[in-house]
Design brief:
Elements (H helix, E strand, L loop, with lengths): L1 E6 L1 H4 L13 E4 L2 H8 L4 E7 L5 E4 L7 H4 L2 E5 L2 H10 E6 L1
Antiparallel strand pairs: 1-3, 2-5, 3-6, 4-5
């Protein structure tokens, strides 16, 4: 499965460093255009190729933002268990 994460270009210099559990968790989506919306102008999209892993899976409901980002699916790493499961399932990581 390919999942995408949008981030600032400076953060992408150390791809694995970007994967950390913040207050909101680490968010991934299966739609690169949604990830691009999160990356913003000058940002980059990271692609993670994974097998199955534990996470919170849900629909994106962000309210007052662009309709392309507002509707979609997200995978959120919220706990250490999610993070470990994700690392174990990771097959490849690259910048689009």
């Amino acid at each position: 499965m390919k999942l995408y994460h949008g981030c600032y270009k400076s953060v992408s210099q150390s791809v694995m460093y970007t994967i950390k559990l913040g207050a909101q968790g680490f968010h991934l989506t299966n739609d690169p255009s949604i990830a691009a919306g999160y990356a913003g102008i000058g940002g980059v999209i990271l692609c993670f190729e994974t097998g199955e892993f534990d996470s919170h899976v849900g629909s994106i409901d962000k309210g007052k933002i662009d309709s392309d980002i507002k509707s979609g699916m997200e995978w959120v790493l919220k706990t250490e268990q999610h993070l470990v499961s994700f690392y174990k399932s990771l097959e490849d990581v690259y910048i689009l």
